[in-house]
Design goal:
By secondary structure, the protein is of the alpha/beta class. Helices cover about 30% and strands about 15% of the residues. Helix 15 packs across helix 17, helix 15 runs parallel beside helix 18 and helix 24 packs across helix 25. Its EC number is 4.2.1.3. It is found in: Mitochondrion.
Length: about 775
Amino acid sequence: MAARLMNAQAQVCKLGKHVVDPMARQFHASCYTASKVALSKFDSDVYLPYDKLNKRLEVVRSRLNRPLTLSEKVLYSHLDDPANQDIVRGTSYLRLRPDRVAMQDATAQMALLQFISSGLKKVAVPSTVHCDHLIEAQVGGPKDLARAKDLNREVYDFLASTCAKYGLGFWKPGSGIIHQIILENYAFPGLLMIGTDSHTPNGGGLGGLCIGVGGADAVDVMADIPWELKCPKVIGVNLTGKISGWTSPKDVILKVADILTVKGGTGAIIEYHGKGVDSISCTGMATICNMGAEIGATTSLFPFNQRMADYLKSTGRGGIAAEAQKFQSKILSADKNCEYDELIEINLDTLEPHVNGPFTPDLAHPISKLGENSKKNGYPLDIKVGLIGSCTNSSYEDMGRCASIAKDAMSHGIKSKIPFNVTPGSEQIRATIERDGISEVFDKFGGTVLANACGPCIGQWDRQDVKKGDKNTIVTSYNRNFTGRNDANPATHCFVTSPEMVTALSIAGRLDFNPLTDELTGADGKKFKLKAPFGDELPAKGFDPGQDTYTAPPPSGENVKVVVDPKSQRLQLLEPFDKWSGQDLTDMTVLIKVKGKCTTDHISAAGPWLKYRGHLDNISNNMFIGATNFENNEMNKIKNQRTGKWGNVPEVARDYKANNIKWVAVGDENYGEGSSREHAALEPRHLGGRAIIVKSFARIHETNLKKQGLLPLTFANAADYDKIQPTSKISLLNLNSLAPGKPVDCEIKNGDKVERIKLNHTLNELQIGWFKAGSALNRMKELAN
C-alpha cells in the first residue's frame, strides 16, 4: 500500500505536464543538508533549509521580475516546482513543501486516524503532537492536570503510541500550549509550517509563515504530498512610532480587527513592517500574529530583527539566529518598493489601549470609550472574572508586566476584586515565573495559577460562580469571544484585551474604569493611580525549562502497536465516505437554514465535546447545536421535514441519513470562521450532508469541506439566500460538467414554484477529484491502487 501510495503522490504532484522528480522529494525530505544548523534541538539530524530556499527564490525572482514582499519570499521559496508554478496573488493554487507539521491533541486524533488509513509507515516531515486542549480548568494547575491525565488516559495513550509508531514527537499533557511550545522550540525565521489549530500563525512572531489547517491537510504534508494553498494576497500594516505606557502589542491586533473586521483578512497574509516594529518584543509580535486568525487572515508575519535574534538566543538557538542574519536581506525582509494589495497605517505613539467585544473580536472600544459604550449598550458593568494567559498572551514579558500592576496595587493595600485566573503558556514559562517570584505575586494578589494548557480560552472551564443564562461580564487576554465559547453560557459577555488591561480592570472590578485617567482608593483611604506596567522582555537568569515533558519517537516504530478498542467511546477508526454517484443531487432537504454568525464553534462545539474528538459518530451529536435556526430564532431546534416533528439538529440529521434523505445546510456571511476544527466538516458529511450553501466562507473551513467531499457553494447573488426556505427542496444540476470557475446550476422548489439560481465555488481540478471520490483521503487511496 505504502509503495503504491508513493506512486500516487507523484501523480498528485502534477502541475500541467510537469511531474516532480521523485529525487526532488528525497532531496526535500532530507531538508537540504547544505546548512549544518539543526532545525531544533529535537531535530538534530534535520537542518535549516536557507540555502535551498534561496535557490528556489532566485528562480521565482527571475520569473516575476519585481520586488517581493516578505510573505512572498517565504512562501514562494517553499514552492514544490518554482520553475513552472503559476503565481498570481488571489488566483493561483500553490503547491508547497512545508518544513514541519504541528498538531494539538484535540485535532491530532482525527488527523492521525486519517494518517493511519493512508498505509504509510512514517511521517515525511518533522511533526509533533501537543497535549493542551483536554485539560479542564477547575481548581488549579496540579490537581486539574492530574484529573485530566486520568480522564483522558485512553486518548493520551493512543496519541503517544501513534507518535512512536509513525515518527512524531510527543509533548505530554502539562507541557504547555502548542503555540508557545512551537515558539520556544521550533519556529524560526523563514519557516513554513502548517498546524491543525487556527492560532498557528503565532509563529509569525519569529518570522515564520505558520498557517492553520484542518487535519486532512496535515495528512497530505506528513504523507509527502505537496500542500495546496490559494496564493494569498498581502495586506501590509505599516507601524510607526513606539509602543509605550499602557499600550501593548495586543492593542495593535485589536485595532487591526477593528479596521478589517472578522473577515477582512480572508485570503490574505498580514505583513507588518515599518520603524515601529523594533519597539515590539518577539513574543509581542507573536501575540499580534496569533490573533490574526480573528480577522480571517491566512497568517501574519513580521520581518526578522534583533528582537527575534535575542529571543532565539535566550531559548538556546543562537545558531539559528546567526544563520538567519546571513539571509536577512535575501529571504527574511521585504524588498524595497514591494507592493501590497492593501496598506494600513498605525501610529503606535497614538494607539490607545483597546477592549474588544462582546460576542465578536472585532467590536472595538478604546479604553477611553469602554465605560460609555458599555452603559449605552447595556453590558453588565460589574466584572465577574478576569483571566490572563492563553496562547495569545502568556509570555514571560506578559506575566512580568501584569505582576508589576499587581504589586503596585498591593503596595496600596488592595488586590483583585474578582477571581483572577492565570494560564502559563508552557512548562518553561510556569517554572520561570515561579522561580522569579511572579507566581507568588499573583497568589498574593488573589490569583489562581491554572495548568499549562488552553483551559477557559477554549471552553475547558468548570465555571461555578454563575448559572447558565445569567447575564455577566468577564475580561480575558484571550483571542476569541464568541457566544458561549469560554463557559458555555450564551449570556456571558466576554471582552478580549491585553493582559495588563485585564489586571487593571480586575482591581477595579468594573468595565467603566480607565487606568490611564481614573483613580483607585487604597486601603488607607487615599486615592492613587496605577503606574504604567513594566516588565523584562526576557528573564535575566535565563529560562528554567521545568519538568521534561517531551518524548522523542524511537528510531523505528515497527514494533509499536496502536490499539483502538471497537467499544471505545473516545476513539473510532474511520470508515471511508461514499463516492459521488455520478448523478445530479436532486430534491435535497434543507436540514437547517442558519441565521447570522455561524463559526466552527456553532457547528461543532468544544468544551465538554472535546472528549469525543477522536470518535466521529459520538461527536456528531453536537452538529449545529449552537447555530440559530432561521425558522424560529432558536438553537438546536429544527423541524423534521419527513415527520413534521420538531427535534434537535443531530437527531433530525440521523433520521434523514437512516431514510436515505440527502440534505444541505444554508448559511450567512463568513460561514465557518474561528477554529480550524475539521469536525465541523466531518460531522455534516458523516450525517448525510452533501453541500453547504452560504454567502461566503472562512478559508480553513471551506478547505475542510472540500477535503471531506462536501460541496462548498456560495450564492452568486447574496440575496438568493432569502429564496431558500426550511421547506425548500434543493437540486444541484449538471454536476457531470463541474469545472473550475464554472458556476453550479441550482434549482429551488418551494411548493409548485421553481426557481433557478447560480452558485459559485472555488474548486480546482484536484479538489473536484476529491468530491467525485468522496473525500481527499479516498482519492489518495484511488491513486494508490
